[in-house]
Specification:
Layout: E1 2-3, E2 10-12, H1 17-27, H2 33-52, E3 58-63, E4 68-73, E5 80-86, H3 90-99, E6 104-109, E7 111-112, E8 120-121, E9 125-126, E10 135-139, E11 142-143, H4 147-157, E12 164-172, H5 174-183, E13 188-194, E14 197-198, E15 204-205, H6 211-216
Parallel strand pairs: 2-13, 5-6, 5-10, 10-12, 11-12, 12-13
Antiparallel strand pairs: 1-2, 3-4, 6-9, 7-8, 14-15
Helix pairs in contact: 1-2, 2-3
The structure holds 1-O-pyrophosphono-5-O-phosphono-alpha-D-ribofuranose, uracil and magnesium ion.
Binding site for GTP: 38-42
Domain Phosphoribosyltransferase: 15-217
Pfam family, one: UPRTase
Amino acid sequence: MIEDKRWKGVYSFDDSPYLMEILTELRDKETDSIAFRKGLVKLGRFMGYEIIKTMETEKVKVETPLEETEGIIVKDRRNVVIVTVLRAAVPLMEGLVKVFEHARIGIVSASRGKPPKFEIEMNYVKIPQITPEDTVIIADPMIATGSTLVRVIEEVKKYGTPKRLIVLGVLAAPEGISRIKERFPDVEIFVTKIDRELNDKGYILPGLGDAGDRAFGAPIKLSNLPQVHPIE
Ligand SMILES: O=P(O)(O)OC[C@H]1O[C@H](OP(=O)(O)OP(=O)(O)O)[C@H](O)[C@@H]1O
Ligand SMILES: O=c1cc[nH]c(=O)[nH]1
Ligand SMILES: [Mg+2]
């Protein structure tokens, strides 16, 4: 885990060959949906494991079948709220719950509109109450313009003030990170890698394409479907 010099509290995993190998497979345009989803699950699990290293631990006594010895518990691991941003964060959440098995889960939908405004449509929000003991992890694989996450963080903050508010992503553009940090300086950001820039359509370069479409297939408009005749 490396803290990026450009911001405070922004970390990437360029120093992890395993995470970089998973990312390489996700970037590859030949990777199919099955492998793509599996890759996101792995990243959720292993980045979750890295986040645990930043949590406070407490010494405890434990009785083995032979004698008493010292152990630890990671107390904050038991007070986690994962907020999943539909669609693309679903496999990331699947990985995260493998290491945060006690987590309460929030689900929000956020769909990014067309450039240049990139307006965010958010019509489904289910978030549990957040307490001062909680670590909130907002999972969204792509931080491009940052519009989605700024909108999601605004919403999450209405449900309480956590001990830590973390954004967990796969790829980020510097523009998106700056946007989030300017608005919410205390939010911590953990991403597999920070990429070069955005193109004029708001896609991350070199990136991995549209994460939602690659994981789940591209949706089509109903009007593009062949005429279906109702069954009499
Ligand atoms: O930082 P931003 O510029 O806001 O872009 C990032 C958002 O774009 C993608 O979602 P998208 O709107 O494509 O929805 P999807 O997950 O359903 O594909 C991605 O999962 C982020 O939520
Ligand atoms: O590169 C990008 C930018 C936004 N959303 C994606 O899925 N990919
Ligand atoms: Mg998408």
